[in-house]
Write a structure and sequence with these properties.
elongated, 6-stranded antiparallel beta barrel, FAD/NAD(P)-binding domain
Length: about 400
């Protein structure tokens, strides 16, 4: 055997690292504090697991606003194409969906987890479950082993730290790795929630909580008024504000300004120009000309949203439709094409899909994922200060850095 390698954390990055290291004839032990591997993998993509994105390498980097360039070397060794090839080779057929998101053809995240665990075990890696690591042991600036919470010590030649970030703590991502690395002299860039639901200042959202909007347009402005995001898709109103795929994607674009004061502008009818929407409303008003305004919007909007729109429009709800002025109608058009919400803050980090921040990339060799401070210490996955938008990019980072660390550990 060419060296004894310890992998701390059996998530996406750790499993790939363990399998890769073991396939190179290294003696690998995986230390996992849970009673099974890959708890977070099972819930990603609503249980479907968006493993990667079928885009070009330049697009891959462009979708990683958190230190994407640090990953060039790692992606040269193992990128999104390699991720797809890996799972196809390991008996997981895949498919590409809207936005070039790649999923297992079965829509089952468990198939992805099983392939990763089998890869590691078949390559010779040994798993130790219910085995939380307390400390990484070093002498003279080099890794010598790990000490578990039960005080058992394992002598090792190298350690791959892949304990994840702070998102979804119920899966085991509770930031343990940050303290281990910090004890060894590493800098931790302040972890922040990324890809996270947003709280809003407006109270009316509580009245429509549970309402899901499909095929709406969302424009996002940072707290300086600069447009930073536009996309069409689905979103959800909650008791605190907004969530759903569109909101999670948008949230990363306002992380750098601290979220607060950013504005979300929702186009409820993106398929219609203002002129066409005005004509549509005129037809509805003609149809319900003798009714009150409050009873004229049922064909245009979801029922639960109508009271809020009426209040925001400033038009008296009891006003007869045939008495609504042209200016009032045009104001209603503007409201439906740009329903504004002001962000007050993100939801807590334990509700985020991904953690931004982590081990400083300045202290990691991008070609090997080895620490520049401690010889024999490697990092992989979300614990590193790299993060991406939604669409399979974050798992691609996990697989790529895991593969690179496993190759060089």
């Amino acid at each position: 055997m060419a060296g004894r390698v310890g992998v701390i954390g059996a998530g996406a990055a750790g499993l790939m690292a363990a399998g890769r290291a073991a396939s190179l004839n290294k003696d690998v032990i995986v230390f996992e504090k849970n009673n099974r591997a890959g708890k977070k993998i099972l819930i990603t993509g609503k249980g479907r697991c968006n493993i990667t994105n079928n885009c070009s390498l330049d697009e891959l980097i462009a979708n990683i606003p958190g230190n994407g360039k640090f990953l060039y070397s790692s992606f040269n060794k193992f990128n999104n194409s390699d991720v797809m090839d890996f799972f196809e080779r390991n008996n997981v057929p895949i498919k590409t969906e809207r936005g070039r998101r790649v999923f297992p053809a079965s829509d089952r995240s468990n198939d992805i987890l099983k392939a990763l665990v089998n890869y590691a075990q078949d390559s010779g890696a040994k798993f130790m479950y219910n085995s939380p690591v307390r400390d990484i042991l070093c002498e003279n600036g080099k890794v010598t082993g790990v000490k578990l919470e039960n005080n058992h010590v394992y002598e090792l030649d190298s350690v791959i730290l892949s304990t994840g970030g702070l998102s979804y703590p119920a899966t085991g991502s509770t930031g343990d790795g940050y303290s281990m690395a910090e004890k060894l002299g590493h800098t931790i860039i302040d972890p922040k929630p990324s890809l996270v639901p947003l709280e809003t200042c407006e109270k009316w959202v509580r009245d429509v909580q549970g309402l899901a909007l499909k095929n709406v347009g969302l424009t996002v402005y940072d707290n300086k008024g600069t447009k930073v995001f536009y996309e069409q898709g689905e979103m959800l109103f909650t008791h605190f504000g907004v969530s759903g795929p569109l909101i999670l994607s948008a949230s990363r674009h306002i992380l750098d300004c601290g979220y607060k004061g950013s504005v979300l502008s929702i186009d409820l009818k993106p398929a219609l120009t203002e002129e066409k929407l005005d004509l549509r409303i005129q037809r509805d008003f003609a149809k319900y000309s003798r009714k009150q305004f409050s009873n004229s919007l049922n064909e245009l909007l979801p029922k639960s949203l109508i009271p809020a729109i009426i209040d925001l429009s400033g038009i008296d709800r009891e006003k007869p439709v045939n008495q609504i002025t042209r200016n009032e109608r045009l104001e209603l058009v503007s409201l439906l094409k740009g329903l504004k919400l002001t962000v007050s803050k993100p939801r807590p980090i334990d509700e985020a899909i991904v953690t931004a921040g982590g081990i400083s990339t300045r202290e990691i060799n991008p070609s090997t994922m080895e620490s520049k401070i401690i010889k024999g210490l490697f990092f992989a996955g979300e614990i590193i200060d790299v993060d991406a938008y939604t669409g399979g990019f974050n798992l691609t980072i996990a697989f790529s850095t895991g593969f690179t660390a496993g190759t060089h550990a």
